[in-house]
Design brief:
The protein is mainly beta. Helices cover 9% and strands 48% of the residues. It contains two helices and 17 strands. The protein is globular. The structure holds calcium ion (CA) (2 copies).
Length: 266
């Protein structure tokens, strides 16, 4: 009787966790980085922590891509100033006089297939102090396809802009196109949701900044003959040799198949 009872309790607790899991903040997102240590009795599957080259959160591991003077990002306590919860991710790049392009990025999704429509959301905070505009190119979000080519979709800071600006660019076999340029607010959280489908014939891009559409495109997106998958990353990635220091913050990084999945506000 005791054995049967404990089996039932185990089964019941498994069922409860399966049913409750989607209701806990990260909704139906396929991958979610909220940087929070979430209550989850019996395990620490939802804890956010960094060990070596990986960030762990909500049951997934996320590779930290670092080159040049890029170093580990850090999980920071921000209390009620966080976009959600109490913790955020700090990405910091020091001054660099080297010759290697420098980056600290989180690989949020290692493989997205061409032809799949997806939503990728995140919230970014660029402080008034501690961040100097780049003097050359720099991305804070990108979808990377192949080492031979520049990323087919990227969100980039605009070099030497004051006030700080960002732009959205896409690439395909015929060229490089800027589809939005506007101010990047500082000292506040800015929510981005990117909807995209990579395809060399019928691609799709739609980008929301703080729930307003800033860019839309349908057509060729990505390169032919360079594989048929992309990797999604957020963080900082800039040209080598920029003698500036930069600190930015991220929270509520989400990926899924619907707008709600990727909404930083959910
Ligand atoms: Ca978490
Ligand atoms: Ca958080």
């Amino acid at each position: 009787m005791g054995k049967i009872h404990s089996k039932y309790v185990m089964l019941l607790s498994m069922l409860v966790s399966i049913i409750l899991f989607p209701l806990m903040g990260y909704a139906g997102a396929i991958r979610s980085i909220d940087l929070e240590v979430d209550p989850n009795p019996g395990s620490h599957v939802n804890d956010a922590y960094i060990i070596g080259d990986y960030l762990y959160d909500n049951g997934n591991s996320f590779y930290l891509s670092k080159t040049g003077v890029g170093s580990n990002p850090a999980i920071q306590y921000w209390g009620s100033a966080a976009r959600a919860g109490t913790h955020v991710l700090n990405v910091y790049l020091p001054s660099d006089s080297g010759s290697v392009n420098t980056r600290t990025e989180v690989v949020t999704v290692p493989t997205i297939n061409f032809g799949d429509l997806f939503y990728h959301g995140f919230s970014i905070y660029v402080p008034y102090t501690g961040f100097t505009a780049p003097t050359s190119w720099e991305a804070f979000g990108q979808f990377w396809q192949h080492p031979d080519v520049a990323p087919p979709l990227a969100l980039e800071f605009v070099a030497n802009s004051d006030p700080l600006e960002y732009r959205i660019v896409y690439r395909n076999d015929t060229g490089f196109y800027e589809i939005y340029r506007g101010e990047m607010p500082r000292g506040e959280w800015v929510d981005f949701i990117v909807r995209a489908k990579f395809s060399t014939s019928s691609g799709d891009i739609k980008v929301w900044q703080d729930y307003g559409v800033v860019a839309e495109y349908t057509g060729k997106l990505g390169f032919s003959g360079k594989g048929t998958t992309v990797t999604a990353k957020v963080g900082l990635y800039r040209e080598a040799g920029q003698t500036i220091t930069q600190s930015v913050f991220f929270d509520q990084i989400k990926y899924g198949t619907t707008f709600d999945d990727a909404d930083p506000n959910r």
